[in-house]
């Protein structure tokens, strides 16, 4: 392999792995500052949507750099990244809905707090002209 290309690939792998680890660490530390269950669920989004895919892609590139391109590993990597993005979105939505339906309290400092209002509360009826 060309030494310049090898150096660039090594740098890209390092950026992906360190960047992914940074997002994971940031999410883990942010969990301590989250005030309610909804905030904790929301804190995980960058880790699962950005951090883990970066780590998986970095590991794939390192494997490709050392062992060569393997189509089976490429397909597994693409499916893994796709599953991480799709499953994390759906899982956070389902977890937040379950937390809300179970009566988990919402931090009063959360604004806007549309979930705290009863349906129809604070909404105005549309003006209709009677003739």
UniProtKB/TrEMBL annotation:
The keyword Nucleotide-binding does not apply. Keywords: Membrane, Transmembrane, Transmembrane helix. It comes from the Bacteria. InterPro entries: PhaG_MnhG_YufB (IPR005133). One of its GO terms (molecular function) is sodium:proton antiporter activity. The chain crosses the membrane at residues 6-29, 41-61, 73-96. Pfam families: PhaG_MnhG_YufB. Residues 103-131 are annotated as: Disordered. Belongs to the CPA3 antiporters (TC 2.A.63) subunit G family. This is Monovalent cation/H(+) antiporter subunit G.
């Amino acid at each position: 392999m060309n030494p310049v290309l090898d150096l660039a690939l090594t740098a890209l792998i390092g950026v992906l792995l360190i960047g992914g680890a940074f997002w994971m660490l940031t999410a883990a530390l942010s969990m301590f500052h989250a005030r309610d269950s909804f905030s904790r669920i929301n804190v995980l989004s960058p880790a699962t949507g950005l951090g883990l895919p970066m780590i998986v892609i970095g590991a794939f590139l390192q494997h490709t750099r050392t062992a060569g391109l393997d189509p089976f590993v490429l397909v597994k990597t693409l499916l893994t990244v796709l599953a991480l993005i799709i499953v994390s979105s759906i899982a956070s939505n389902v977890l937040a809905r379950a937390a809300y339906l179970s009566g988990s309290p919402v931090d009063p400092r959360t604004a806007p707090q549309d979930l705290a209002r009863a349906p129809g509360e604070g909404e105005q009826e549309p003006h209709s002209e009677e003739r």
